[in-house]
Design goal:
Belongs to the peroxidase family. The structure is a single chain. By secondary structure, the chain is mostly helical. The chain has eleven helices and two strands; from the N terminus they run ααααααβαβαααα. The protein starts with a helix and ends with a helix.
């Protein structure tokens, strides 16, 4: 396949993904799907044979990884990409399609920055490429131990504090404090569902489908399935409202604020970045793109 043919295939897949995002209002789901496919990366295993270090390899489409507790509900995103995109665009890897759908949810329907995503990722082709459970961050501490994270992943993420836990997760991937806070801002999109993560409410005034109109960044009203707790009032728009809400003690109590969210303002080293992103959307966008 020539470079031009591959580029044309990518652009065609992008156009179909844009249609899927607009018609199905599945952008937040795609952001979570791509993050969970990539977020198991361990830089300390980078010298090992691929795909031992993990990362965006498309492994999330296989069991047992898709059945990990942190991935509850993501089978819906896998099925959407398979049915609406992959079957038509066989040349593009699952790993690339997941990342493309996530980036377009931010850039296109979300109104966020252009991420400059590069493509050409290779897929694992069997469950043998699945990653260990336990590499992704927790929103709240284990009620029995009081600890965040655990020891079951490629490296321990266990810590008594949410900030310490986040560092163990993200430092393992080679990221720094600014990048941790920036990536946390993706919670401007989407909702937490109690029946999946055990967090949030069954529904709120913002997610019950009857009292709050949801719109894409272009102002178009979007229908959506009711339920869950959102971090922001307009949870299909990618902006810095996550940081504004988090630092506002008078914000609506039905908006979600997990302990791992609150850490970006409570942690002394995270706080300067959270304050900068709260006050300046462009600064947030710039740091998010880099992260």
């Amino acid at each position: 396949v020539s470079a031009n043919e591959y580029k044309e295939a990518l652009l065609a897949a992008r156009d179909d993904i844009d249609i899927l995002l607009a018609e199905s209002a599945c952008g937040p789901l795609m952001v979570r799907l791509a993050w969970h496919d990539a977020g198991n990366y361990d830089k300390n295993l980078a010298s090992e044979k691929w795909p031992i270090a993990g990362g965006a390899t498309g492994s999330i489409r296989f069991a047992p990884e898709i059945n990990h507790g942190a991935n509850a509900g993501l089978i819906n995103g896998v099925k959407l990409i398979q049915t609406h995109i992959k079957e038509k665009h066989q040349l593009i890897s699952y790993a690339d399609l997941y990342q493309m759908a996530s980036s377009r949810a931010i850039e296109y329907t979300g109104g966020g920055p252009s991420l400059g995503i590069r493509y050409g990722r290779q897929d694992v082709d069997s469950p043998d490429g699945c990653q260990k459970e336990g590499n992704l961050p927790d929103g709240e501490a284990d009620p029995d131990t009081g600890n965040y994270g655990g020891t079951s992943g490629t490296a321990s993420t266990e810590d008594k504090t949410p900030g310490g836990h986040l560092r163990k997760v993200f430092y393992r991937m080679g990221m720094n404090d600014e990048e941790i806070v920036a990536l946390s801002g993706a919670h401007s999109l989407g909702r937490a569902y109690h029946d999946r993560s055990g967090l949030g409410a069954e529904q709120t005034k913002f997610t019950d489908g009857s009292t709050t109109t949801q719109k894409f960044a272009n102002g178009k009203v979007t229908p959506f399935h009711a339920g869950g707790s959102s971090w922001t009032e307009q949870f299909f728009v990618f902006d810095n409202s996550y940081f504004i809400v988090l630092d506002d003690d008078t914000s609506d109590p039905e908006l979600l604020k997990m302990s791992s969210d609150k850490a970006v303002f409570k942690d002394d080293d995270f706080r300067p970045f959270a304050e900068k992103f709260r006050d300046n959307k462009d600064s947030f966008f710039e740091s998010y793109v880099k992260a």
